[in-house]
């Protein structure tokens, strides 16, 4: 398959990234609706959710590509770089850790750091494993 032009690749990443960021926004809003704004502001539930789901989806996507072929660079740029890049938020994750620590919640900051990494990596393995067995 031919490589997309720089303009086409840029548009794929931009469109996918915008869509992924919108999905991330919806996840955050869903947490606020589910548990209320006060509780939702006590812990970065939305960021944790998108990081774990994003890792799972990346595992599923990479597993799909490994099994069925990549379907071209454009598909990878749109889905992996764009949508999942806009959806997952490790820069927000870092800010959340620092914010918790600066509020004196060092235990919660450490828990959040550990659970995000462990659950994210385990979810990626789960996604790959699922795709290897379907």
TrEMBL record:
Keyword terms: Cell inner membrane, Cell membrane, Ion channel, Ion transport, Membrane, Metal-binding, Sodium, Transmembrane, Transmembrane helix, Transport
Membrane topology of this protein: Multi-pass membrane protein
Transmembrane spans: 44-65, 77-95, 107-128
Means of activity regulation: Na(+) is not transported, but it plays an essential structural role and its presence is essential for fluoride channel function.
Catalytic activity entry: fluoride(in) = fluoride(out)
GO molecular function, a single term: metal ion binding
GO cellular component, one term: plasma membrane
Keyword Cell inner membrane annotated: yes
Subcellular location, record wording: Cell membrane
GO BP terms, alphabetized: cellular detoxification of fluoride
Chief localisation class: membrane
Binding site residues for Na(+): 85, 88
NCBIfam families per UniProt: crcB
Function: Fluoride-specific ion channel. Important for reducing fluoride concentration in the cell, thus reducing its toxicity.
HAMAP family according to UniProt: FluC
Protein family per UniProt: Belongs to the fluoride channel Fluc/FEX (TC 1.A.43) family.
Protein name, UniProt field: Fluoride-specific ion channel FluC
Organism: Novosphingobium endophyticum
Designated gene of the protein: crcB
């Amino acid at each position: 398959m031919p490589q997309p032009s720089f303009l086409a690749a840029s548009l794929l990443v931009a469109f996918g990234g915008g869509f992924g960021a919108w999905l991330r926004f919806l996840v955050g809003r869903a947490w606020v609706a589910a548990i209320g704004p006060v509780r939702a502001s006590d812990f970065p539930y939305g960021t944790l959710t998108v990081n774990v789901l994003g890792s799972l989806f990346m595992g599923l996507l990479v597993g799909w590509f490994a099994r069925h072929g990549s379907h071209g660079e454009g598909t990878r740029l749109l889905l992996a770089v764009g949508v999942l890049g806009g959806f997952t938020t490790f820069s927000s994750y870092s800010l959340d850790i620092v914010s918790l620590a600066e509020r004196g919640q060092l235990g919660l900051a450490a828990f959040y750091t550990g659970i995000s990494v462990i659950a994210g990596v385990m979810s990626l393995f789960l996604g790959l494993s699922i795709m290897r067995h379907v």
